[in-house]
Amino acid sequence: MELLPRSPAEFGSARYWDRFFRQRGQRPFEWYGAFPELCPVLHKYVRPRDKVLVVGCGNSELSEQMYDVGMCKDIVNIDISDAVIRQMQERSASTRPEMSYLLMDMLQMDFPDAHFQVVLDKGTLDALLTDEEEATLVKVDQMFAEISRVLQVGGRYLCVSLAQAHVLKKAVEYFSQEGWVVRVHQVASSGDKQQFVLPVFVYVMTKFRKIPGSAPQILEICPEEQDKPMRVESAERLVAAVKDRQHYALLCSQISKTPCREQVSLDLCDKESGRPRYTLHVVDSPLVKPSRDNHFAIFIIPQGRETEWLFGTEEGRRQLAASAGFGRLVTVALHREQHYEGMAGIQAELSGKVMELAPPGLPARQQVPFLSAGGDLGVRTVRHCDSSPLSGQYVVEDVKGDGTCYFRRLIFLRNRNVVQSEARLVAPAPLPGQKKRRKDKKKPGPTEPPGAIDKSYLCCEHHKAMVAGLCLLGGPDALPGELAVLVVGLGGGSLPLFVHDYFSQARVAVVEIDPSMLEVATHWFGFSQGDRMQVHVSDGLDYVAKLAAEAPAQYDAVMFDVDSKDLTVGMSCPPPAFVEKPFLQKVKTILKPEGLFVLNLVCRDAQLKESVLAALRDVFPLLYARRIKGEVNEILFCQPGPAGRRGPAELGARARALEGALRRPGRPWDSSYALADMLQAVQML
């Protein structure tokens, strides 16, 4: 039986609706949900003594149910279909004497002005506004004008809709410009199989007298899980907020029916501030054979560890899900701007929402476990927040790593999942003559991080590889002697500090474009300048160009560890201008003949990466590459002359000699450095 129109325009045709209701018979046709879902919203805006007009009533049971539960009695229903009006009159005449059904066109109503306190529309606007043709918009304006005419001041127009963008935008713009208050409610789902995958919304437009001049618009949205409305500043933002909820509903519908081929990511935002509170990744493991107890689990990532490979990369999360042994694992990252009331509080807050992401086939009333690494939320202490014109907003925070170690991190909030700089924290050593802490004196809490920077420790694997590359300088059996090293990119200062402290004859010059980073490194990461360490606040491009023109061949090593501020490029380190051939020629010019250029390359664009490597080969005859396991970083070692070509055995011997020279009595040395191991996987390009 054909019930749908041949074209959307037929939705506005009385002839179509007559045919529709004759073919459908007595079965109610419920546009966009039934009374139980709509009742909580309607109850807020419909009072028992209100006179209510229902436009485009069809054969819905909504009016009958409102009447029967005592929500209101004085209800007038109108429709353009004679067939449905006669049907509804027969159905309610004897049982609902105060309710009436009239054959009437809502575009030309016979009611006097200000006759109703409520106008209720369930899907009628959606049926009329099927396109944005001029003729359609004229009809919609007529509809709105008539609704405005028959409503009293303070009356409410309640429009139940799927909230397509053009429908919502038209309603919001029309009534807000008339000075009405506009509020959009999302209707809570009953959990039953719905006719529509998209969520249902109710627009609540409250009529006020129009104030001459430019009165501020009042636009609000009320998500289904809360009563308190949230104010939004424009019609565009209101439409965008509704669209976010529609996308979420579509996502939940899709992943509840089929496994995810790709990992799905979404943010859950704080109700008050609108800022992200949780970041969720849905990871399916096709190799895990589902049983009753391993369908679904939630994994809470400890605070501060969301950037680790296991939690912060697709491959890491895939490995985590497989090792956990669940068919679907939802990882949950906690945001630094938010406060959390322990694991139990998070579980209570997330339980309802994460069940919307459950996999197909999850047994009814299945208990879903919440997991974590170490069973706690981790420790994150924000030490400093600020912003700079060049780097944007940034934060310095102390976090607890795996085990008992604490680390200080610098994060640029424009790329919050990337650690810009990191240093290990240690308890400060007592000063000479300082008395020991009295036993009865209160000790720091177990979650309070120590405050001193461990300058001997390189947290970043790519920094260890960059240091290992220095074995390419000097003789085969000894530490390089006096070194002149240029580092472009300061960050927290860990790399230049290590070179300065462990290469006792090295003179280190650092170029940093952002003066704020020098302040951060000095105040928060233990960086300091001296006779052998100087920082130049300058653009690295300009500084190198000036050196090439005025003081060539003066550096034994040039190291680039500089990030790109442009996130639209597929290369986050360095900025593209730093690896263009003319500039690389200038880098070669400032190197000594047997010098070394070390580049930290982070490039996800394969074509762009190949062009970078081609430019490097054109300028530097010798090119070695060291990929960092589990990271995108690749360290490139470039030398200006072919005489330095060395095989793996010689590289290993040089690295071991360098490591032996750096290991001096009384100087800390971490076993993870293993410089020879760092160079084992070096490839000559």
From TrEMBL:
Residues 50-172 form the Methyltransferase domain. CDD domains: AdoMet_MTases. The gene is Mettl13. NCBIfam families: MFS_SpdSyn (NF037959). The keyword Metal-binding does not apply. PANTHER family: EEF1A LYSINE AND N-TERMINAL METHYLTRANSFERASE (PTHR12176:SF78), SAM-DEPENDENT METHYLTRANSFERASE SUPERFAMILY PROTEIN (PTHR12176). Keywords: Methyltransferase, Multifunctional enzyme, Transferase. Belongs to the methyltransferase superfamily. This is eEF1A lysine and N-terminal methyltransferase. GO terms for cellular component: cytoplasm.
